[in-house]
Write a structure and sequence with these properties.
Structural class: alpha/beta
Radius of gyration: 22 Å
Helix content: 25-40%
Number of strands: 19
Number of helices: 17
Shape: globular
Distance between the termini: 57 Å
């Protein structure tokens, strides 16, 4: 073990830091940590066990490790490969962006994300990793091991589908020339029963330590999964007592198609299927209306709010205040590096707050900085199913971020919560502790050799590009058609608007 990381079994006394819990600013305090858990928070100079290792935090602001409620580890090797892309263009580009053949490609991609998140104050994430054409035990085990080796907590939910984008959107297949129709035929997907059988094996034979890295189930988008498949995913999650995570009403295209297919909203439909419960997480929820929100809130479900990604893809801005008012557990995520370009949770905090302000002129209808911080800590922790992370409080895991009070973004420290939400960008992160062990020390990641990782990532990306030329050419032919068809569908008159500009439909 790296000596700088420390021994989680040895007591730690963190002295003199300014402690910002998810619930309130405690000011200067000492924090006693034993067996990776916060035991006591007291006045500076409080008594500590004789063998406790003292950590000087006198010029540090301590906050709970941020929790990323929605990301995609397979997207890290495909970072920033698109510019003016809608969600549907992003989905169509997947075959050439991440056609991973080897276990190493999956492990390296996940490791890149873990490294970035830890260096930017995030200590846990919900990763909807995808393997094509179906999830495998070895592949998902490699992803789990990547997080474990980096020293980060994670929930890994392999994404699954049994319908393609071109089947899911009515009329899209018919809009393609015949030669392109043949190239995107649904024969590439396996029957859902086979996919679910493989997912069951992953859950049954999980190799990781569930205290830190655990599995979940992710039918990717309801429109891409037959009802029988969605119901079977719910049953599987209930059987193994794990979470279930899906993309819900992310784009207006999804909302319009869902209503046409089911005669009701997507949320109403999956409620009828029995999917909604406290273990259910809906990613995005941009085009949820008030009744949809009330449904989710009544079932104790969570919504993972991804404001940066939603704006990047032109999907709109979710009504975070409405979600909270409806009793929904609000969480915050970054989404993938393919549609947000980084996994910086501080950026997501900023956008969650600022985007709320762009929804209208009444400050009473804006989300507050404390609400945003709570969503990115305790709210996201609840979405992940970890009940003892997200706070600096007795009985909670010592997942603690140490910010440098000599960093410009914290000069002077006038309003800790507001400055963290609106002003922090990750450059103030000095140290990061997960379960009482330092994984970042003096701005250096202790668990990953970053230069070696960067070199190997570049080699793998070159290999992927070399073998995916045909897929890239197919996308280039499909893109103009998608760019006409899907925005036209999104201009359908609708009863709610989630865009901040002048366009309503």
């Amino acid at each position: 073990m790296n000596e700088d990381m420390g021994d989680a079994r040895r007591p730690l006394i963190i002295r003199g830091g300014l402690v910002l819990d998810a619930e309130r600013f405690l000011g200067a305090a000492d924090v006693l940590v034993q067996d990776g858990v916060v035991v006591t928070i007291g006045e500076p100079g409080m008594a500590a066990p004789e063998d406790a290792l003292a950590i000087d935090a006198s010029r540090r602001l301590l906050h709970p490790g941020l929790v990323n409620a929605h990301t995609h580890g397979h997207g890290n090797l495909s970072r920033s490969m698109g510019d003016r892309w809608t969600l549907e263009l992003l989905l169509a580009a997947a075959p050439h962006m991440s056609p991973y053949d080897s276990i190493e490609e999956k492990r390296i991609s996940a490791t890149i994300g873990a490294a970035e998140m830890l260096l930017k104050g995030c200590t846990a994430c919900y990763d909807l990793f995808v393997e094509f054409p179906l999830p495998t035990e070895d592949g998902i085990a490699a992803v789990a091991d990547a997080y474990a080796q980096a020293g980060m907590r994670a929930v890994i939910a392999p994404m699954m589908a049994d319908m393609t984008l071109y089947e899911a959107i009515p009329g899209l297949m018919e809009a393609l020339p015949q030669h392109l129709q043949a190239s995107v035929a649904p024969s590439c997907l396996l029957p859902w029963q086979e996919t679910l059988q493989q997912m069951r094996a992953i859950l049954r034979n999980w190799r990781g330590d569930r205290a830190t890295v655990r599995p979940a189930v992710a039918p990717t988008i309801p429109l891409h999964c037959r009802d029988e498949f969605m119901g079977a995913c719910h049953d599987l999650a209930a059987e193994f007592d794990v979470g279930i995570h899906t993309h819900l009403a992310e784009s207006k295209v999804q909302a319009v198609v869902g209503a046409r297919r089911y005669g009701q909203s997507l949320t109403a439909h999956i409620e009828q299927l029995g999917l909604l419960s406290p273990r259910f997480v809906a990613a995005h929820g941009v085009w949820l209306d008030g009744e949809d929100m009330r449904r989710l809130g009544a079932h104790g479900a969570s919504v993972a709010h991804n404001p940066a990604s939603n704006m990047r893809l032109g999907s709109g801005v979710a009504d975070a205040v409405g979600l909270l008012a409806a009793g929904v557990n609000l969480a915050i995520g970054t989404d993938a590096a393919t549609c947000n370009d980084n996994l910086n949770m501080y950026q997501s905090l900023h956008f969650a707050a600022a985007a709320s302000h762009a929804r209208g002129p009444d400050p009473a209808r804006w989300i507050s900085a404390p609400q945003v911080l709570a969503a990115a800590t305790t709210g996201s922790a609840r979405a992940l199913g970890f009940d003892r992370i997200g706070r600096i409080a007795p009985g909670f895991a010592a997942d603690i971020v140490f910010l440098d009070l000599d960093a410009p973004t914290l000069m002077p420290l006038n309003a800790p919560v507001t400055q963290l939400v609106f002003g922090e960008d990750g450059t103030s992160v000095m140290d990061v502790m997960v379960g009482g062990r330092f994984v970042v020390r003096n701005r250096r990641l202790l668990t990953v050799d970053l230069p070696s990782l960067a070199a190997r990532a570049a080699e793998l990306r070159a290999e992927i590009d070399a073998r995916s030329g045909a897929s890239r050419q197919r996308f280039d032919a499909l893109a103009p058609i998608l760019s006409d068809f899907c925005p036209a569908l999104a201009r359908t008159e609708w009863h709610i608007n989630r865009w901040c500009g002048c366009e309503r439909g």
